Structures are given as C-alpha cells and as structure tokens.
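Quick one:
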Amino acid sequence: MVRMKTSVLKIASVLLAVACLASAGAAHADNLMAVWRAAQVRDPAFLAARQTMQLAQQRATLFASNSEQAQAHLQVARERFRLAEQELTLRVARSYFDTLSAREGADLALAQLNAMAQQLRTVQRGTEMGVGSEAEVREARVRFDAARAQRVAAMRELELRSAELEKIAGRMPEQLDGLRMDAALWSPEPADPVFWTSLASESNPRVRLHKASLEAAVQEVEHQRDNGSPSVDITANRSRIFSDGSLSTPAEMAVRARSAQLGFVLTVPLEDNAPESRLREAQALQERSEAELAVVRGQAAAQAEQAFSGVVQGLARSQALSDAARAGRRTLEGLQAGLRAGARLRTDVLAAVQQFYSAERDWFKARIEAVVQGLQLKAAAGRLDEAEMARLNAMLGGLPAAPAAAPVVSNATAH
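Output:
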C-alpha cells in the first residue's frame, strides 16, 4: 500500500510539472512557419541550391550575348532551387507533425497511467473495505504496469522525434503549437486521381527540373552546331558549412567554414573533328535527358496516385476513429453506471478505460497522418509552397487541450 501511494505521488508530481511547463512555454510556443524559417537559414542543400541560382543569374547577366543558352542554364538552377525548397518544406512539415503526434501520444499515455493508478487505488481500497477481491487487484496492477510501459515507449518516441526536428531547425523549440481540435482536414479538390497524376507528371518539381535540363541540352546541341572555334567559360562555386551538433549527438564546439571559387575555362580544339565530337556528345546528352524525363514523369505520377489514395484513406480512418473515440467514452460511462448498480465488474471498467485511451491515441495519430498524406500529394503535384505552409500554420493554435480524463468510480458508490 505504501508503494502504491508513492507511485501516485510521483505521478501527481509529474502532472504538476507538465502543467507548469505548459503554462510557462505557452508564451514562447513556436508554430510551423517559425520552424520552417529557422530551417531555411541552416539547411546545406537549400543554401547550396540558392547560391547556385544566384551565381547562374550573375552568369546570365555577364554573358548576355549568348542569352538563350545562359537563360536555359539559369532555368535549371531555378528549378533545382525550387526542388530543394520543396524537399526542405516537406521534411520540416513532416518532422513537425511527427513530433506533434509523438507529444500527443506521450500526453495520452500519461493520462492513461494516471487513470490506471487511480483505478488501482480504488480497487485496493475496496478490497480493504471488503467490497473487492484480490483478483481485481491483480487485474488492476497488470493494467497499471502495461500503462507504465506504454508511457516509457511514448516518451522514447517523443525524444527521437524531437531530436529529428532539432537537427532540422537547429534548435528544439520550447513548445510547439498543436493541431486545433476544430481544424478541418484538407481533402483533394477535385477528388479525381487522374487530375492529380496528370498534374504531377507536368508540375512535379523534379519533372520541371528535368524539363529545364532537357531544354539546356537542346541549347547546347544548337551551340555546338554553330560553334567550332575556341570557347571561354566562366565557373564559380560558393559553399558554406555550419555544424553545432544536435540534441542526440552534441558537438564540443561549433564548426563554420566558407569557401568560394571563381575561374575561367578555355577550350581549344586540337583536332579537326573536335567540334563534331562535341556535337555528338551534346546530342547523346540530349537523348539521355529525354529518357530521364520520361522516367521521372512516371515516378511523379505514381507518387501522386499513392499519395491521393493515402489522403482518401486517411480521412476515412480519421472519421472512423473519431466515431470510435466517442463511442468508447459512452461505453465507459455506461459500464461505470453498471458498476455502481452492481451489474458490471470493475475489470470491465478497467478494460474500457484502456480501450478509451487507445481510441483517443489512434484518432490523434490518424488526423496527423491525414495531414501528412495531404502534404505528400501536394508535393508530388508541385503545390507545396509558402502559401500551403501558411494554410497549415493556420490549422495550429496554441497548446493542445489536455487529454480527456476517464472518470473514476469511488468505493462509496461501487458494489
């Protein structure tokens, strides 16, 4: 009995600490846009793509006499930057919502643990008063231990997801804005998979990049046909490296490094057939670009089709689990009424409490998974941009409400 009181006191102290942290962190909560902006200033792939685009713009300005070819290469750099931007956007959003899902799972696991602890106390007191049995105590103890194990697993999942988000954003936010309970989940419009697969085969960022690369290859073929003289090309490269470790693998000191290179490449034909060789090489590269474009288009269409199916199924699953969560609460209330009337066993109530929290947890995860599947579909269709991030951010609103607690039947009313 002393051990049970100690466990309950520990749980109560944990709940009090969580409430204090929530109230202290509410004023400093970070939303999705804040995390996204933080990631943009440190992601190496994003920064490299932006610098490459800036250098391509400068090169297009310097070599305005060969504007078509320069503009083709500039378009490649722009599409590469858009691809890097969307990949970062998708990575940030997925990590953010995965962390939210893990946090909600940890909160529900803690609420379930507290409910099971209260039920165990009630059963033990009932046994002391002669209105319970040792079998009920053992059953309550088993479910309490199971809830404690689930809490440990949930906290481990939260630590892993938080470490991933901290690695992307460079810091772990003190608190994240939660998904509002009244937020309407996005559904595809039009609800036609053919529309989305067709859109992805043309507007997917990787498809756009390969289309731009193909246009650059065509311009190179034309350039080699018209040019058999020596040529001069300018090359430039700039990079920046920054690393200060992460929550899981911290570094002793931050590392910063920058490098820049600028040069000219002079090409002089040494053989009479050199121009013809370069033309054949350019034509081969064009053919390869055409083949790669066809493959990427097929991959983009398949990704869109899979994501569309995931969105539809995710919305249906979220609705079904929402109904199941409400039904589980009504069932629990009915069983508790039956327990007070002496028509139900306390073990039935314990099972209903566990099922109630399991349904709540599954519903939270289903909602977030539906959001993530929508992101996947928009990414495949090339529609995941700043406006979409703003729409997602509007679905967030402060700290999420505390998980609903399952009522506990006291010994005064139980038979």
